[in-house]
Amino acid sequence: MSDVAKLSVGEHEIELPVVVGTENEQGLDISKLRRLTGMITLDEGFVNTGSTQSAITFLDGEQGILRYRGYAIEDICKNCDFIDATLLLLNGELPTDEQRADFRQAVIADMHLPQEMEDLIRAFPREAHPMAMLVSCVNALSTHHQDQVDPLDSEQVHRSRQRLIATLPTLTACIHRHRLDLPFVAPNPELGYVENFLTMMFADEQGQYEIDADFVAALNLLLIVHLDHEQNCSTSTVRVVGSANSNLYASITAGICALWGPLHGGANEACVNMLSTIAADGGDVAKYVEMAKDKENGFRLMGFGHRVYKNYDPRARIIKSACDVLLEKLDLDDPLFEIAQALEKVALEDEYFVARKLYPNVDFYSGVIYRAIGIPVELFTVLFAMGRLPGWIAHWQELHASPTKRICRPRQIYTGSELREI
Ligand code: ACO
Does 306 participate in catalysis according to the annotation? Predict the structure, then answer.
């Protein structure tokens, strides 16, 4: 293919450079389009728009490939825990033993919350949605770390990223316990990241909790598969907000808001609610597949379909086999897992889903694992945020390191009234 494309519009004939990525994906560089022709592009939902060049995650939706920093997601899941994968994303390379130990120690030391943050959580109505509480808490956290909010000071950014990664499990556990009217459990410097999270969530009144190695492994896996997914809705939000030089806390808060929506990260909660509805309705999966096909109905199969994947989502494949292993080890029969598998089978054989290349996505089976661990459904999207956080930070850092960084400011085609008088 030629390294320029030619565009002819009105009296203008311009050349658009073709940008080629390391995996041979190609894009047209239209950065001079408006200057040379007076025109902009129109692409609602950014279906054809590349917003940046990025070296973090490679995704091939046609083939169902996902790689972080060049490593296949399957390989990372087999060989790394969440902290290793986080460092890979943030630094570009897997950590040395020393880097891993230093980071773990620093993160665990930062896990505790200021008393005022605990008071803030206790002030929320117990029945409030955990995502609403999380959003408020992450932004409020910055008020306790005002020496970490200069986005152009690398030392401050370093401390804020560490604080955020350290604190999200603590916030999540406190939110969970507040909803149940239970006392909060402080982080334990002797425990690892995931072990601390599980203990802070589930410890009894004496602070005792028996850590189950299978739960730790399953949670590490879930956090890793959620780590990053290139320019998705929440990551793009973090980048857009970061492009205005808003601080990291504010940018991450915005990302969490975007993640909450049921078309994005909120789909994991919506999916389990849907599976429960199907179970309560007698388990007739075919009926719900028919409903999803009916355009008048407005019902969609949650956890199905993806903007980029037109093949089986590799994350769903990993999670599904982890579900099999975990449920068997625990000797658990989860009726929702059975309904999910039956639903998948019917949908994947149906012409509607085949023609549109709709497959289960990351949210379809993750809820089965969360349920087995004992995490309530309203907390699922909070867990997604915990996993996605390092990915958001890696993108925020990449944006700020870019010599071509500019504020993100799209244009529009105005379709309102012409000038009129009052
Ligand atoms: N159930 C039924 N039909 C669907 C579904 C679904 N879950 N998803 C897409 N379709 C149909 C659409 O109706 C449309 O049909 P048409 O061509 O006849 O009009 C076609 O498939 C294409 O769908 P779009 O909505 O145009 O695809 P888009 O890329 O804009 O949306 C999305 C992707 C939002 C993920 C969509 O598939 C969806 O709503 N899925 C359910 C929610 C979900 O699981 N979200 C999580 C995604 S993964 C993540 O963000 C972590």
Answer: yes
